[in-house]
Specification:
795 residues; alpha+beta; Alkaline Phosphatase, subunit A; elongated; six-stranded antiparallel beta sheet; Deoxyribonuclease I, Chain A; 25 helices; seven-stranded mixed beta sheet
Length: 795
């Protein structure tokens, strides 16, 4: 009854969902309702470093993401962005498996013979075409929002490589677009957000002008703040909700509001931190919609592409831009010179497409470049110096040394022999990768990996003859633009992004304590069934799961009534039950209410299917048989098991409990010792359950002399702790939840709002209880009407 109510409420919520109505109204192609098919939603929070994420979670600015960490038990990983630490480089590796797709956000493309910037749609589309020739697009058949590249998505919206709405929206004409504009921009929520952001934006602009900022750029930033931090975010969020309602296999969206504020005011500024609240709400809405989907079983991954460094603008410190400084030094050395600089302010708004936004938000990437001498592409803390006539070796060295000594540039690099590079710093000239510690600092979190990437950057086909870096260990980074935050270089924060993943995510095995975008790509392909390259062995997360493995004599037992794998939404899903078990990493699993060849559950042998997915042995006893259909209990294990006894329990069938009941006794070989485990499911009618309990305590079962030590009696007893049934078991065994002093006992039924503790693990005196857990994430609440009970024991 309770399950029927919840499944009905879930169907009603889907029916009333505006995203579902838009899907039906526009007649979008949608997947058939089949929840067993996997799906993936990837949410990129642009520019948020691991350190700033942890601080925001601690300070309460990301309440939903804190809930994912604590209640939903997601694993938080350190994600190394690679070099350069920019969105196109990360997305090139994630979407196509190509490392170092660009040498910087802005650079000279030697094939095109001109300066390009990834805010240019033509440049982004041209580069993506080259990437697609090197690797399969991760987002094939899915959608992409507000990215640099489309990732091969069938539908791409507001991406630099395909500005504006995707073809599915455009094909439905002006009316559909107006409806979406009204829903997003002119809803009460949309109007409130616009007003709030407008007021805060003008306050920020006034503060900026008082502190010497350009008034036109401040006003331009107010408009870009409304466009990017409100309208674009709401469009992207709502588009993702529609695609979830349609059941697209993979959806990727980039939330860019924090990165925009961090550039302008700094990654730790109040305005940047404020933007995280709205991002957190967007993540919450998408996550909840994904977990309500009737068309796919979605995983939601949240990650950032890079972090941001607090910076000192070079021009503010030296009184002129680095381009001007380089030109002046080159003139003194009699090297032909020109100049080129970039200002990325508000350029992301160009991804919305149209005619007026690209004109309003012009940037220096649109300017021409003097190709007669020396030019510099500077954007972020990485700059590239190009000689248009081949320089003598001593000219290159002289310019590098002067840029460091006279120009106070923290680091200058140049190519060396294959596999190496030269670097000049205030401490002198060094060779890379051997002395990368002098450039990066000995305590850099990615020293080994980054030293190789620095060399690869210097050797990139489109890298400059010299590469200027603003990173300096132990000091504030130097930025080549007039911004308070920047990224792209090898800094410890800008290269340390994060990945927040469900606890059972299969990741490539390896020895590194961090991930790269390539690892996320392989894991995503594996989840979507597009690759078999991933060995499902997780890396060690920053917050490792509490596993008993590794201690001699310690093991984990789980008892779980799976309700015939029928969830609270009314759907039968073996995959969900398997995931619940896999997340707990048990050594032995006692399951109740399993179907075998029953029509109501698709004629599947559920015990065998679950055991096969988990790679476990299984023993099944059908307490009830109806023709070829069977229903009963099972024990699964990773260790050798021997059947000792199985059989039915006494009790006549009547209207108060029409089910037959049984028990299963196995001997398991663990840590060189034999363990007895009895699994049962007692009657819901108390007098009948008491008769069955007496039978279990007889010499045929738990009263047998073999069960006086190293014995576990567990299952769904349909009895509360104070009941006669539990008191009878307590005369010879200990209630594991009561024996564990670390926390009060937790209820196990029913899943969504537990009201009773009717699932139990009883143990003999020689087994010490080291931990007890009742997982209650959204997955457990949905998968069955019971919650699993997990107990760690020690001989």
């Amino acid at each position: 009854m309770i399950g029927w109510i919840e499944s009905s409420l879930r169907r009603l919520a889907r029916f009333l969902s505006p995203a579902e109505w838009f899907t039906r109204l526009w007649r979008f192609p949608s997947a058939a309702a089949e929840e067993e098919r996997p799906g993936l939603v990837m949410i990129q929070i642009d520019g948020l470093s691991l350190r700033h994420l942890e601080r925001a979670v601690k300070d309460g600015r990301l309440p939903f993401m804190r809930q994912l960490l604590r209640r939903e038990r997601h694993a938080l990983f350190s994600l190394y962005s690679g070099l350069p630490a920019t969105t196109p480089a990360v997305q090139g590796e994630l979407f196509y498996g190509v490392r170092g797709a660009v040498p910087a956000f802005q650079y000279f493309d030697r094939d095109l013979g001109r300066m390009v910037c990834m805010f240019e749609p033509d440049a982004a589309a041209g580069l993506e075409k080259k990437l697609a020739a090197q690797g399969r697009g991760l987002l094939e058949g899915g959608s992409a929002y507000s990215d640099i590249f489309t990732g091969g998505a069938a539908e791409a919206h507001f991406c630099m490589a395909s500005a504006g709405w995707g073809r599915q929206i455009r094909a439905r004409g002006l009316f559909a677009t107006l409806l979406l504009l009204i829903r997003v921009g002119f809803s009460p929520r949309g109007l409130a957000l616009l007003v709030m952001e407008g007021v805060l934006g003008f306050a920020s602009a006034i503060s900026g002008v008082i502190h010497g900022q350009n008034i036109w750029k401040e006003l331009q930033f107010v408009l870009s703040r409304l466009v990017i931090c409100v309208l674009l975010r709401e469009f992207v969020t709502y588009g993702a909700l529609i695609d979830i309602a349609r059941g697209l296999p993979v959806i990727h969206l980039n939330l860019v509001g924090y990165d925009e504020h961090a550039h302008r005011r700094g990654p730790s500024s109040a305005f940047a931190q404020w933007s995280l609240r709205a991002i957190d709400r967007a993540v919450r809405d998408i996550w909840k919609a994904a977990h309500r989907s009737a068309r796919r079983s979605y995983d939601v991954w949240i990650y950032s592409d890079h972090g941001q460094e607090e910076t000192v603008p070079y021009e503010a410190a030296e009184g002129e831009s680095v381009s001007s400084m380089a030109s002046r030094i080159a003139a003194g050395l009699k090297i032909p010179h020109g100049r080129h600089a970039a200002d990325p302010t508000a350029a992301r708004a160009r991804s919305l497409g149209g005619r007026w936004l690209p004109r309003l938000f012009r940037h220096a990437c649109d300017a021409s470049t003097d190709a007669n001498g020396l030019s510099i592409a500077t954007m972020g803390p990485v700059g590239h110096v190009y000689f248009w006539t081949r320089p003598a070796a001593n000219d290159r060295v002289a310019l590098a040394e002067e840029l460091v000594s006279a120009g106070h540039v923290p680091c200058v690099m140049s190519v060396g022999r294959p596999g190496s590079a030269h670097a000049w710093t205030a401490k002198g000239a060094v060779d890379l990768p051997e002395r990368a510690d002098l450039v990066l600092g000995p305590d850099h979190p990615f020293l080994s990996e980054l030293s190789r990437d620095l060399v690869a950057l210097a050797h990139h086909p489109n890298a400059g003859d010299l590469v200027v870096l603003g990173w300096q260990p132990g000091k504030k980074a130097v930025g080549w633009e007039m911004t308070s935050g920047t990224h792209g270089g090898p800094g410890s924060r800008e290269t340390q992004a994060f990945a927040l993943l469900p606890p059972d995510t299969a990741l490539p095995s390896g020895s590194r304590a961090f991930l790269r975008p390539w690892d996320l790509r392989q894991a995503a392909l594996h989840l979507l069934g597009k690759s078999t390259e991933v060995t499902p062995v997780p890396l060690v997360p920053i917050r490792p799961p509490d596993l008993p493995a590794g201690r001699q004599g310690v093991f984990r037992v789980m008892t779980y009534n799976v309700h015939s794998c029928r969830g609270m939404d009314g759907r039968v899903s073996i995959e969900r039950i398997t995931r619940v078990i896999a997340r707990c990493h048990p050594d032995i699993v006692a399951l109740q209410e399993l179907d075998m060849d029953r029509r109501r559950s698709g004629h599947v042998d559920q015990a065998a299917a679950i055991a096969a997915r988990l790679g476990m042995n299984k023993l099944f006893f059908p307490a009830e048989r109806r023709a070829h259909e069977q229903y009963g209990d099972a024990i699964l294990g990773r260790h050798p098991m021997r059947l000792v006894r199985q059989g039915s329990l006494p009790g006549t069938l009547d209207f108060r409990d029409p089910e037959s009941r049984g028990a299963l006794w196995v001997s398991v070989r663990l840590h060189g010792r034999d363990l007895n485990l009895l699994n049962t499911h007692l009657s819901v009618w108390a007098p009948k359950a008491l008769v069955q309990a007496r039978a279990l305590m007889s010499a045929e079962w738990a009263g047998n002399p073999e069960c006086r030590a190293s014995t576990i009696l567990c299952g769904d007893m349909n009895a509360r702790p104070e009941s006669p049934v539990c008191r009878m078991f307590g005369s010879a065994f200990h209630d594991a939840q009561l024996r564990h002093a670390g926390r009060p006992p937790k209820k196990t039924w029913f899943g969504r709002f537990p009201v009773g503790r009717i699932d139990h693990v009883f143990v003999t005196d020689d087994l010490r209880v080291t931990a007890v857990d009742v997982p209650d994430t959204e997955l457990e609440k949905l998968a069955s009407d019971h919650l699993p009970l997990v107990v760690d024991l020690e001989f």
